[in-house]
Amino acid sequence: MRSEWRVALLSHCLLNPGLRARGLGSPQEALPHLSRLLAELMGRGYCVLQLPCPEAAFLSVRREPATRAEYERAGLRRKAVELAESVAGLVASMASAGAEVSLLIGVAGSPSCGVRTTHVTSASVREPGAGVFVEELLSRPELRGVKALEWDFRDPEGSLARVLASL
After folding, report:
1. Which domains does the chain have, with CATH numbers?
2. Three-state DSSP class for 45?
3. Do 93 and 53 form a contact (C-beta atoms < 8 A)?
4. Is 122 exposed, middle or buried, given 0-12, 13-18 or 19+ CB atoms closer than 10 A?
5. Does the CA dihedral 40-41-46-50 come out positive or negative?
6. N or C: which end of the chain has fewer CB within 10 A?
7. What does the pLDDT look like over 19-77, one tens digit per residue?
8. DSSP 140
9. Helix, coil or strand: residue 106
10. What is the pTM of this model?
11. Helices then strands (H, E): number in the chain?
């Protein structure tokens, strides 16, 4: 069956950068690049689904930055599993209605939404690996084959170029 529409899953803070943990930069700096990302995705036929933020759902909207290890010890994995199951159910429902969920864009360094890098044990050093939520999402059969890309808030211009080149 040919898909009727394509869907891109975006980490919550890509559409709401003000929700990032305290001290992680001004949302205003990224907005022009994120606006262009959305325009490009939609111009290429993607609908956009904003993923929930596991950190905000687990702790609060106003929170201090933490590492993946700190979040794991605090129990974030349970919330990530719960949210990933919910997203997987929605993806399955969309697929049965004709959608092709083919893209996920996470956030570099995020303990929850990192795709290739996360802050595992140090708040100042990014290490290879996925964040807890992205790891749980990509382990679901409903998301098998989804292309996972990473947005870096430290380099929004470069991130935009890399994401667009990968589409």
Report:
1. 5-166 (3.40.50)
2. coil
3. no
4. exposed
5. negative
6. N
7. 776 556 666 777 899 999 999 999 999 999 999 989 888 786 676 777 889 889 999 89
8. S
9. strand
10. 0.92
11. 7, 6
